[in-house]
Fold:
Amino acid sequence: MSPKLVVFTAPSGAGKTTLVHYLLQTIDALAFSVSATTRPRRSNETDGIDYYFISKEEFRDRIDKGEFVEWQEVYDGNCYGTLKSELDRLFAQGKSIIFDVDVEGAKNIKRQYGKQALTVFVKPPNIETLRERLQSRHTETEHTLQQRLQKAIKELACENDFDTTVLNDQLDKAKSSALEIVQDFLYCPTNNPQKLHTVGID
Ligand code: ADP
Ligand code: 5GP
Structure:
C-alpha cells in the first residue's frame, strides 16, 4: 500500500489538534508531520514533537533553499510550513502521514498530492463556541484571540474546498466520525476521497 496523506484543517480552536492526537493514538499506521514554525513555543509543547521551533531568519533561509513543501504566514508575522525532509523521514518509515495545517496549507497539499491526500475540514458548531474553546485553552491574548476569530470567519467559508467535513460539537461523536473517515481512506483502496460526504452533520 503506498503511503497516504491525511490533512486536517480548520479554524484555530475548532479541535483539529485534539482529533489528530486521538487518531495518532488509535491508528498505528499514522505518523504526524511536525511542521516548522517561527511562533513561540507554548508551555505544553515540545520542540521536535509538536513543532520544529525555528527563528524567522532560519525560516526565511529555508524558504530560499526550497526546503518547504508548503508554507504560510498564518498569524502575526509568524510562519508555519511543512518541510520536505519531514515527509521524506516519515515516508522512509512506511507511514501514512497526518497533518494539522491551515486552510491554505491543506489546499496546497491537495493540489500537489491529488488522490493520495484526503483533506478533512473540522467544523465548530458556531463562532461563539470557537471563542469559548480558544479562551479555555489559555493560549491567546485578547489581541491574538480577535485575530484568530477574524480569520475563522473567512476560513469557515472554505468548508466546501475540502474532501469531507467533521462537525466537532460533541467530542466523542467527532472522534468516531474522524476515525471512520480516516480508516476508510487508508484501508479501502477503492474509496475516492472526492466521493466522501460530510459526516456528523444532518
Ligand atoms: P485547534 O487545534 O483546531 O486549534 P484544539 O484541538 O487545540 O483546536 O482545541 C481547542 C480547545 O477546545 C482545546 O482546549 C480542546 O481541549 C477543546 N476542545 C476540542 N474539542 C472540543 C469539544 N468537542 N468540546 C469541548 N471542547 C473541545
Ligand atoms: P497554532 O499556532 O495554533 O499551533 O497554529 C496556527 C495555525 O497554523 C493552525 O491553523 C495550524 O493548523 C496551522 N499550521 C500549523 N502547521 C502548519 C504548516 O506546516 N503549514 C500551514 N500552512 N499551516 C500550519
User: Anything to note?
Assistant: The radius of gyration is 16 Å.
